[in-house]
Amino acid sequence: MSDQFPTYRAQMEYVCLGCGARHPIDELLYTCPSCGGVFLLEDTTFDKLKEHGGAYWRNLFDSRAATRNTALRGVFRFYELMAPVLEQEDILYLGEGNTPVVDGAPELQKKLNASFAFKNDGQNPSASFKDRGMACAYSYLRALVRKHGWDEVLTICASTGDTSAAAALYGAYVGHPIKTAVLLPQGKVTPQQLSQPLGSGATVLEVPGVFDDCMKVVEHLAEHYRVALLNSKNSWRILGQESYAYEVAQWFNWDLAGKVLFVPVGNAGNITAVMSGLLKMRRLGIISDLPRLFGVQSEHADPVWRYYSKPKAERVYNPVTVRPSVAQAAMIGNPVSFPRVKALVDAYEAAGGEFGVVQVTEQAIMDATILANRHGHIVCTQGGECLAGLLKAREEGRVAAGEKAVLDSTAHALKFAGFQNMYFTDTFPPEYGVAPDASLANRPSLVVDAAEKARLSAEEFTRAAAKAVAERLELAGK
Ligand code: F0G
Questions:
Q1: Domain 101-125+236-432 classified CATH 3.40.50.1100?
Q2: What is the pTM of this model?
């Protein structure tokens, strides 16, 4: 039963959030041909899923957790809720999804007087949550390739480093007829992130500026050339990323009452997907309570916070000019998915859910990142941003000490090792506004230098090095 690929097939349509127009999914559309608005994909037969109660879906998804069918092993465990138009043969699986929820180290929770767990989305194949959406977008692309018999498809994306890593990885795995190109803001992705599309063999192109500049270029390309856009403007990405919400619910045994989710916001695709997934589960009775949901933004890139920090009647959306941020992957001044956030927040609130945005300082992000990792976590700076967001929300009285927070650590700590290094060596350029806590600095120390090693025999070297280590560690003899 759990290995069997589902027979349910939906009718899906692109729905424009600008003018409400609907478009068929037989071609890859990014924006509404009528008004330029962004889309969400809607299953117009969704009500059929309601013929089963919540318990049916919970049991089905639980039984699939043990499947050996790779088409259902990753994010498509939740096939019926995501993209139930894809055939088994088109589904791509590189081990994405099913990432661990790791409880905050007891010492750390106590120290911070907060209750939380990290969901380590950095434990995805390309070391970020982007793989969830990429598995779905590429599966749909494979379906199109099969249908049309295309012999060359060029994919492109703008990126702060993680979308490009994921796009290049999945593209390289699929191979012919897919070719991948990525457009990066020069010097604004980390060396580790840059190494990823290079290693996957993608064409890596750079422009001066920030992500928002790159996004405009790829939007122009998608409008005027035959190229498949893989940014989250592509709504198939959003569907795949909904799996994050399904996994959180499943982990907590489908009970999200009293939980608070924190998600870092950049281009706002992820928070869109999380809300959309939570709403679908609520509509089907898979969960009975919507968790409280907080977006987190750095004060150096905070257009969504600015919007939601105002009373409803005074809200006006304005893009911001970003400043350098340690949460560099989310350093975006004009999030493409902002209209989706607005629409979904309205739906979330109408369904009884609570949504808010927290703004945090660069210093708080960096301190929280270092602190978490010194307690055995593997959070990226965006994961640290979520912890900083929780602490800020606690300070502001928006979250109680006993409320359990689930913090989205969207990428692996290793991708952002450079910021840790700047913290340890106190070398942040002033624009970041980060003054490290010197007591946390950590660096390697050499116990025997090369000249000394050269002077010594192999045995003498071992003894000298062991003696130096023992002295450093103040080891007692036995
Ligand atoms: N965290 C990480 C590690 C990211 O890579 C991103 C976005 C975000 C958070 C913000 O998520 O954009 O969905 O609101 N990175 C994109 C990229 C923009 O190009 O890799 P979002």
A1: yes
A2: 0.98
